[in-house]
Structure formats: C-alpha cells, structure tokens
Design a protein that fits this description.
By secondary structure, the chain is α/β, with parallel strands linked by helices. The protein is 38% helix and 23% strand. It has two domains: 247 residues, TIM Barrel (Alpha-Beta Barrel); 88 residues, Arc Repressor Mutant, subunit A, CATH 1.10.10. Strands 9-10-8-7-6-5-4-1-11 form a nine-stranded mixed beta sheet, sandwiched between helices. A three-stranded antiparallel beta sheet has the order 12-13-14, with no helix packed on it. The longest helix has 17 residues. The chain starts with 9 loop residues before the first strand and ends in a 9-residue tail after the last helix.
C-alpha cells in the first residue's frame, strides 16, 4: 500500500528530563532535579540509545538536532560538547545543521551560553512564558522579569543570532493588554523567532487538578488577533499556528515535524518516527530517567513501537501540515505518506464545503476560518474509529 519514491528529511530529538521545578501546566516527561543530575551517566545512555537506533537510518544525514526537555540548559557546556561530539561520530550531520538547545532563564549566564555555542549549538530557545512577575509566579517559573531580560541579552552577547523566545497567552486572569505587553517586551529584544502559545489545561498536571481561572474564548481569540497584528507590523511572519519568524529564521526542526519528516528520538520518553520501505514506524523510549539509563542501548529501553496503518498515516500528515498557515504542496502528501491523495479526497471536499480549506492543483491550505477552528478541520481527516474517541476544543 505504501510507495515511497524518496525518504523524508531526518532530524534528531534529544530529551533531557530534568527541571529545577515542575511547572503546574506542564505535561511533558520532566522530573524535578532533587539531587545532582547524573550528566555523564545520562550522556552515556543517550549515545548507547543512538547507536541502537542507527540500523533504522543507515546512510541518512541528520539535518537538525533539538535538545529539549525538561531543561537542557541545566547540563554543563562540557556535557553538551561531549554529547554533540558523540552525535557527530555516530551519524552524518549536515554541514549547515540547525542545532537547538532549550534554555530556562533561571539557569544560564553569558559564560554558559558561550560554552553552548562553542559546543556547536547555533540556535537557542529561551522559555520566557511571560515578563509579568505575577504571571510568572502563577506559572511556577523559577525566573522573574529581570532574569528573562538578562538571559535574552546574554544570549546575544554570547554571539547567538538565531534566538527564539517562548511566550504564552491566555494565562490565568490575564487581560488582552497584559498579553500584548508581554509580546511588546519580547519584540523590543528583537529575537529572530517567537513562539507564542495559548495556555491549555492538560491532564496529569497541577492546573488540571486545581484549575485556574482562564480568559474566556472570546478574550483569548482577541489576544491572538492582536498579537498576530502586532507581530506582522514588526516584521514577524506567522508560518504556523504559534510560530513567528523573521525572514529565513523559521525553525527547521519543527518544520520537519509539521511536514511529516522523520526523526530519531533518544532520551527518557523520547518519541521517534521513521519511514522505511514497508511503511512508517512510530516508537518511544521508556519514560523514567533511572530506568532509561539502566536499559538504554538494549531492546528493554523501548517503551513501545507502532506501525502506522495507511489511514493513520494520512491523518497524521494532515494533523501536522494543516498547522502551517500557508498550507502545503499537494505533492508533499504522497511524498511523505507514500499514499495517493485520493485516499483523503472525500474529507478534502467536506472541508472545502465547510469553508475550512482552500486548494488548487498545487497547494492545500486552511482558510482563515479553518485556522480559527483548526481542531474542527483536523477532525475531518481522522479515521472514523477515532472521531468518536477524541474530544476537540476549538481555539483561536
């Protein structure tokens, strides 16, 4: 059923599962570092994990690397240098590879940033979330406004040009004016990229157990509209639901996700997606850091593996690609899924009828209405068996 003329680009995701403190909104696989982080043992485990993954991707070049978490900036520059050197020995890394490291403003300074840059990191993603002291306290962040501003300045002084700032809106009891003030502060720093997410309440989080009072849907939609207008005026192009970039600074790693590229995932709880001659495989590693370090490099470190059925591959492609504001080339569907576009023709027509989608012979893209009610658009492409099992909430 699957027929691939060419394999998609390959990325590498490396998960660092430790934080100083678990945020009440976070549902990622992260753990508070109550003692010294076992840097050496964990990097040894990551490299064993990578070696075991190599047969899945023999001969393929890695185009982007992303160190996510958790808080990767808790690792010393020496540890990051050892890790990236180990990656280069084991996989062909593109000469212009984008190498991103996530950083928490409460864990970095100029010297640390310079060390990361010397290790080969060329893109920083700094988790600001807000510049408002009250909102930062509500979100459980370990930094304040001053630390956020200092971290952004330190990154620039250390020589980084490709800097992303993470912000959130729709925060507890936040007004439209407060949300815009955060974005205006970020714009004054002039980062190359901004990720601006709406806060959502996820299961298995403190906010889910004790829900805060959030802005209503209309207020959140107004926040999003005004944020979009402000960033457009300042030269930031919105290329995905929550991603804005100066020209040429779109996040290549995330674009590979959204365009249904392949990626190796190493680290506790890391997920991967690999295309082969027989189809598309998703796999993930065991989540607990101690258990992972003990088993990394063996089959016991695998938390699970799943081969996608054709309908699932089609749905997953569209769930990702429809997040892109400019949509995608029609030909990309067959290239990345190995399937004829006709497999989703009925759903495409229905989406057009509802005014959620535009398409021509070359491009498929969500309409303004489709972007506003993205979940309603995406659900049209889920296999029938999944539609009744999934709850979707329309966001701005």
């Amino acid at each position: 059923m699957f027929n691939f003329a060419v394999l998609p680009p390959l990325s590498l995701y490396i998960h660092v599962p430790w934080c100083v403190r678990k945020c009440p909104y976070c549902d990622f696989n992260s753990h508070e570092a109550r003692a010294a982080i076992p840097e050496r043992a964990y990097i040894d485990a990551l490299l064993r994990d990578l070696e075991r993954e190599l047969p899945r991707v023999w001969g393929r070049t890695v185009h982007t690397v992303f160190l996510g978490g958790g808080t990767p900036s808790l690792f010393s520059p020496e540890a990051v240098d050892r890790l990236l050197a180990g990656v280069r020995v084991r996989v062909p890394l593109a000469p212009d590879a984008e190498v991103t490291l996530e950083a928490n403003p409460g864990t970095v300074d100029i010297e640390r940033f310079q060390g990361f840059r010397d290790a080969g990191v060329n893109r920083l993603s700094i988790g600001i979330q807000s510049f408002d002291p009250e909102k930062l306290q509500t979100l459980g962040r370990i930094h304040g406004r001053a630390e956020a501003l200092q971290a952004a300045e330190a990154a620039r002084v250390a020589g980084f040009e490709n800097i992303n700032l993470d912000l959130m809106y729709g925060l507890p009891r936040q007004t439209v004016e407060q949300a815009l003030a955060d974005v205006q502060t970020a714009v004054a720093i002039q980062p190359a990229h901004l990720s601006v997410y709406q806060l959502t309440i996820e299961p298995n989080t403190l906010f889910h157990a004790k829900p805060p009072v959030l802005p209503d849907d209309d207020t959140s939609w107004e926040m999003q509209n005004q944020i979009q207008d402000l960033l457009a005026e300042q030269g930031y192009k919105q290329y995905e639901v929550s991603a804005y970039a100066k020209p040429g600074y779109e996040c290549r790693h995330n674009l590979n996700y959204w365009r249904f590229g392949d990626y190796l995932g190493i680290g506790a709880g890391a997920h991967g997606k690999i295309t082969g001659t027989q189809g598309i495989t998703r796999l993930w590693k065991t989540k607990h850091p101690g258990n992972y370090m003990e088993k990394a490099g063996t089959s016991a470190a695998l938390g699970g593996i799943h081969n996608l059925a054709p309908q699932d591959a089609a749905a997953e492609f569209l769930l990702n690609a429809l997040r892109l504001t400019q949509g995608f080339a029609s030909s990309l569907f067959q290239e990345r899924t190995g399937l004829a576009l006709s497999i989703v023709e009925e759903s495409l027509r229905l989406a057009e009828t509802k005014g959620l989608l535009n398409r021509d012979h070359a491009t498929i893209r969500p309409t303004e209405l489709g972007r506003r009610f993205l979940n309603d658009l995406q659900v049209l492409f889920l296999p029938e068996t999944s539609r009744h099992q999934t709850r979707f909430v329309a966001h701005g």
